[in-house]
Automatic annotation (TrEMBL):
Residues 7-34 form a coiled coil. Residues 557-664 form the Calponin-homology (CH) domain. It is an enzyme of class 1 (oxidoreductase). This is F-actin monooxygenase. The gene is Mical. It comes from the Eukaryota. It is found in: Cytoplasm. The lineage of its organism: Eukaryota, Metazoa, Ecdysozoa, Arthropoda, Hexapoda. InterPro entries: CH_dom, CH_dom_sf, F-actin_Monoox_Mical, FAD-dep_OxRdtase_2_FAD-bd, FAD/NAD-bd_sf, Rossman_Mical. Its EC number is 1.14.13.225. It comes from Drosophila pseudoobscura pseudoobscura (Fruit fly). Its cofactor is FAD.
């Protein structure tokens, strides 16, 4: 019995061991399946992101660019954020060859020491008004410095057709940012101009790929001082309920052109009346249009005959004219007033330039005729049937204005301090300094002002620098801007950075003293006006927890009540908000934390999922996400959060405060409508898909009709013919020499045999040679053809043998690699004719 019992016991142990092994095997199989599914999902997301990246590079409208970028971020699980939190993750997710070439450009730029590895402005928040070229260029530099950057754009499309002249440093700067990756024709050859629309598209893509957050269709109204639930400065916008109104910032950049919503005082420079006309015509890209030469700039004093002929034949009197060929045919000219009046463009002469060029005093149709006639004459009528391009209003893109009145801001920046919160306001681009059209300086000086503003942001982010010191240095640099030309800047244009010393020679950072800029500070703290220290050598700010903002200690409201009010304001649309009477209800309700996370990060928690979950399950989910994804360490279990009996109120209130500070001042998630990219995908495939190579005639030896040496083997004609011709030439030379030698010997013999009649003998011998040569000509031609055919056959055989050997080696490698990674079997028989056998493998056994 004991033996039977032992056997039974051993059998049970073996069965249990087998069951355990089976369970472990099943668990391992499940884990492998899960890992495989995750890996497949990652590969699918990476493939989708790579495709969206390729489409983003070729997109040409603002809506397409923004929609593609948002879809790509969703595919890889990212959202716009500071450089070090966004760019490395995007680079790791998108790994196509085209993306890798662009990442190399970005890496080289971001590695410059001036950016401090993306930490020079860590913790600084920037709001840029306007997504024009200068606004986007400022946003890019601030992003590279490590700041959180948000851009507001009033329009929802890019529609400006005018063409900008580019100084050499601007071309180099844009190339270093990867402009050629987005627009292959950028400044090819000697071209030194680009349309505003194309430039905006390129800079928009660069800013988005670096992590800048851009919101279209939002208009800035004014800045809101800190107060209530707001810890920092915010913006009043239109529409008023747009989520960007929650964004809190430290730096405000005005890049909205002449609108100047920041109300900086400006001074006017007025010269002699000069009326400019700009016109954009549709570029149909025909052969006739391609032959028309550009006019980089013709002034009256340098080509008087041209302008006199223009006036004599058309009655159009100009001082200068420029023609650039880009996406449109762009003309800009300076017209004389008497000519405009004589042609009926200006209805009535007036002394005030504003009244002279006002809408009611201008005949629009005659203005169109004037611009078209000037364009046709200056291009020698090589572009018939010119059609005007349309502007963003849907009207012909023709404009007339007085450019002798230029405005410049009296100061480039100012500071407002309220309740301990500092706000730096800076102007860039046309908001700061209007360009003088004939010099083509608008884009170049605009980019210089963008870099200067970015350097001011870097100084501002460093607590070692005083407010007065930052303002004084910024104003010292601003005084140089109006004096800049391509010749007065530093010679090494490839070394330009935000540091003004790399761009301005003989820079004096202290030309403006601290006491001269005190009027630029509006503060409720007088101590700010007494601090003048500066540390220009410091690379970055001393920020322990960048991006975190603490509640002001001066608030009279208790911490719990303040938290409850802020949470209720964020979740006001939810039905459970009226039930929140006390701060503890935030935890006991269960769905509050999930709703708060879903408002800002719906990619982490979808609020609809919590509909059927209990408060215990909701809190457990929220605590896990906060700890795993957002770095807020858990202090209690989900069960304890519902009771709150064993935990001090101070502890769980501080926990709620950490959660609120995590989202306070951020922009809630905006749900954008999905966009259909099928048309863009189809267009991209048509433009970038090449037909597969055809090897069907690779080894065929059928000669072409033009030459017996032509073969289907892809060998250049010159290579085929050169060896044969040289050999034939050498043979003909040898035969000719032999004939000459034999002819000389025959003549001498005949003369000797003739005795006294030597002359007659020589003549007879010459006649015999002549007859022999005539009879031998067909024979030699036939032999030459036979030799040529033999040589051709030998060359063909050599080429065929070498090609078959190389092809066999390549196909063998192809066969082995395909059999390893693919679900088909490939067998190649390389002896002519070439055969390729493809056999599918049996489907793999599922896990």
């Amino acid at each position: 019995m004991s033996r039977q019992h032992q056997r039974h016991h051993q059998t049970q142990q073996q069965q249990q061991l087998q069951q355990q092994q089976q369970q472990q095997q099943q668990q391992l199989t499940v884990q492998q399946q899960q890992q495989q599914q995750l890996l497949m999902a990652e590969h699918a997301a990476a493939a989708e992101a790579a495709e969206l990246f390729d489409l983003l590079c070729v997109a040409t409208t603002m809506r397409q660019i923004l929609a593609l970028h948002r879809t790509m971020c969703e595919a890889v699980g990212l959202r716009p954020s500071p450089l070090n939190d966004y760019y490395p993750k995007l680079k790791a997710k998108v790994r196509s060859w085209k993306a890798a070439a662009l990442w190399k450009k970005f890496d080289a730029r971001a590695a410059h020491r001036v950016y401090g590895k993306g930490t020079a402005c860590a913790g600084t928040r920037v709001l840029v008004i306007g997504a024009g070229p200068c606004g986007l260029r400022t946003a890019i530099e601030a992003q590279l410095l490590g700041a959180k950057v948000v851009v507001l754009e009033k329009r929802d499309r890019i529609s400006r057709n005018n063409v900008l002249h580019l100084w050499p440093f601007v071309i180099t700067d844009l190339r270093n940012l990867g402009a050629k990756k987005f627009y292959g024709k950028f400044c090819a050859g000697s071209i030194d101009h680009i349309s505003i629309r194309q430039l905006q598209c390129m800079l928009l893509k660069v800013a988005l790929l670096l992590g800048v957050e851009i919101h279209e269709g939002v208009s800035f109204e004014h800045a809101l001082e800190p107060g209530g639930d707001a810890v920092g400065w915010r913006a009043a916008v239109t529409p008023a309920d747009h989520p960007v109104s929650h964004y809190e910032f430290d730096v405000l950049i005005g890049a909205d052109g002449k609108r100047n919503m920041l109300d900086f005082r400006r001074k006017e420079f007025r010269g002699k009346l000069a009326i400019a006309i700009t016109a954009n015509f549709v570029n149909k890209k025909t052969e006739a249009e391609a032959k028309v030469e550009e006019i980089s700039g013709v002034a009256f004093i340098f080509n008087q005959a041209f302008f006199k002929e223009l006036y004599g034949k058309t009655g159009i009197d100009l001082e200068n004219i420029v023609y650039y060929k880009d996406e449109t045919h762009y003309f800009v000219m300076t017209a004389k007033k008497h000519s405009l009046i004589d042609k009926g463009v200006i209805i009535e002469d007036m002394a005030d330039p504003a009244e002279l060029l006002a809408g009611p005093n201008v005949d629009t149709q005659k203005l169109h005729d004037y611009a078209r006639e000037a364009a046709e004459f200056s291009t020698q009528y090589q572009m018939p049937n010119l059609e005007f391009a349309v502007n963003h209003y849907g009207k012909p893109d023709v404009a007339m204005f007085d450019f002798t009145s230029m405005f410049a801001a009296e100061m480039s920046c100012r500071v407002i301090v309220r309740k301990g919160c500092r706000l730096l306001q800076c102007l860039v681009g046309d908001s700061l300094l209007e360009p003088f059209w004939p010099t083509g300086s608008g884009c170049a000086r605009g980019f210089l002002s963008s870099m200067d503003a970015a350097y001011a942001i870097k100084l501002w982010s460093n607590p070692q620098n005083s407010t007065l010191g930052v303002l004084a240095q910024r104003e010292s640099i601003y005084r140089l801007l109006n004096q800049t030309t391509p010749d007065t800047l530093q010679r090494d244009i490839s070394a330009y950075t935000v540091d003004p010393a790399t761009r301005y020679p003989n820079l004096n950072r202290e030309s403006v003293n601290s006491w001269q800029v005190k009027h630029l500070i509006d503060t409720d703290d007088p101590s700010v006006l007494e601090q003048t220290f500066m540390d220009t050598q410091h690379a970055g700010p001393h920020v322990e927890t960048p991006g975190r903002r603490k509640r002001r200690s001066g608030d009279s409201m208790p911490q719990g009540a303040s938290l409850l009010r802020w949470i209720a304001a964020q979740l006001h649309s939810h039905q459970f908000v009226p039930e929140l009477k006390e701060p503890s209800d935030v935890l006991r309700n269960g769905r509050v934390l999930c709703g708060l996370i879903s408002r800002y990060r719906p990619d982490l928690i979808e609020f609809a999922v919590t509909k059927d979950m209990s408060p215990l399950e909701c809190n457990e989910l929220a605590f896990a996400v906060l700890e795993r994804e957002l770095g807020v360490k858990r202090i209690m279990s989900a069960k304890q959060s519902l009771e709150l009996t064993d935990i001090e109120s101070r502890i769980w209130l501080n926990y709620l405060d950490q959660i609120c500070e995590l989202f306070r001042g951020e922009i809630p998630h905006i749900k954008h409508p999905k966009m259909d990219f099928s048309d863009l995908r189809q267009k991209h495939r048509i433009n970038h898909t090449h037909a597969p190579p055809d090897f069907s005639k690779l080894l065929q030896m059928k000669p072409k009709a033009k030459s017996p040496m032509q073969d289907a083997v892809d060998v250049p004609t010159t290579v085929q013919r050169r060896s044969v011709l040289e050999e034939e030439r050498a043979k003909r030379q040898r035969r000719h020499e032999q004939l000459l030698n034999s002819g000389g010997a025959g003549t001498g013999t005949a003369g000797a045999a003739g005795g006294g009649s030597g002359v007659g003998g020589a003549t007879a011998g010459g006649g015999n040679l002549h007859h022999v040569g005539q009879n031998d000509t067909p024979r030699r031609s036939k032999k030459r053809r036979q030799t040529s055919d033999k040589t051709a056959n030998i060359v063909q055989l050599i080429l065929r043998t070498a090609l078959c050997h190389e092809l066999s080696t390549a196909i063998s490698a192809f066969e082995s690699s395909i059999n390893e990674v693919s679900s088909i079997s490939v067998q190649v028989v390389s002896s002519p004719p070439l055969h390729l056998y493809v056999t599918p493998h049996p489907p793999p056994t599922p896990y």
